[in-house]
Amino acid sequence: MGKGEGCQITLDQQLSLSCFTVFSSGPKMERKIAIIGAGVSGLLACKYTLENGFKPIVFEARSGIGGVWSQTIESTKLQTPKSFYQFSDFAWPNSVTETFPDHNKVMEYLQAYAAHFNLFPSIKFDTKVTSIDRLVPSDEDEHSWDLWGGTGKPFSSSGKWNVTVQEARNVSSATEAYQVDFVILCIGRYSDLPNTPDFPMNKGPEVFDGKVLHSMNDDLAAELINGKRVTVIGFQKSAVDVAAEVANRNGVRYPCTLLFKTVHWMVPDYFLWSTFRSLNRWTELIIHNPGEGFFSWLLALSLSPLLWLSSKVVESCLKWTFPLKKYNMIPGHSFLNQISSCMFTVLPRNFYDRVQGGGLSLMKSRSFTFCKNGLVIDGETTPLVTDIVIFATGYKSDEKLKNIFKSTYFQKQITGSSAPLYREGIHPQIPQLAILGYADSPSILRTTEMRSKCLAHFLAGNSNLPTIKEMEHNVMNWEKSMRLYAGESYRRSCVSVLLQKYSNDQLCKDMGCNSKKEKMVFG
Length: 523
Prior knowledge:
This protein is of the alpha/beta class.
């Protein structure tokens, strides 16, 4: 997004960009903006569009705000230190003293934020968006445009979006259509459409006499799990959290099995603080990035062994502290590769104590199928008898994003490219629409807030976008840099080692703001 009004900020001020807030009672009030989702990204989009003189309408399928935080297991807590998960203009209350607050306190914080900035009147709860469709005149050829939307500006004199909604609690209710000038998708990555494996005929859940759930299920409660043999599938955050909670409830009498294909590095919560503090300006001196000059390239090349060394130090520390070798839990990839792929898995408290005590069993396997009384594990001679199988295998985020579009052309733009978003918010081929909260990072709230401010700055008419080709070229250049560190685990929507340069400096540049680098830390 192009340059606007100039101002200067230090890094401590980078998330308080009041100089970009534009209040207006003119034409902007007439522009209709739809925001889909009232999670963290939806709240931020609502707040900053309101501040810029718009009157957005927020559609939320649930009966409250919070997104994934409103539907999670009891033991869930922040995996980010709260100082990295804080709104720039609304601090955590002094009563929250924990570094990693639990989900109840996160929800209270989000509720307080929405109330403080009077966001609730803009939200239509229990309203599910079933589809969005772009309406354009028949003689308009969008595919021939050089500029986004034909002009590089946020609004079009002819094109509109049709947002179709329905009562979330009544699937047979009539639909209603809203015609808007701009859509902001804030539907997130970690909800609604579970990712579960496919199985051969007569070897899937249909032959199993027990219960099969996904970690997103509302009925994943104590009364269901207590006294049952439970197998959890997966090895990311939700999998280890669910397995640890089940093991804590059922103990050794009904041990929980954690079944997984790939081992990942798990770090204790007290270790995360130093990991986050290491993602600073000094670290980025040794990271290659697009457009770097010869000196920067040479410096990054000469200092790059420090990345390898720091990664090995962390790995050695984890192997020395926890019985990884004993339980065959040493990953085949480096710690650097993992954090560069935004895979931050926190080790639950007393995790290996539960393993040693017999309440939690770890089982690695390339594949498995279902049978009448449990699971048939590849390489095992006898079935794993179980009562409940819980898939904690993530979500089909690209498919969920694709499905909201009615147009097959826009659907192909999402699935065919894995959503190559300019500044992680604008798809070059989908005009008058932005996507917030889809990109992952070690400090997701802060990076989403920066993008929300930049988007509001753009909507207020203070900047224009580059050409479509320039945006696509920019996306490819940043992707190339990020692939250097994530390797085969690279995800396009992940922003990690280039956190400052990509999520702060580029957006500040778009808004005409000079992000000073006197303090060489993030935050």
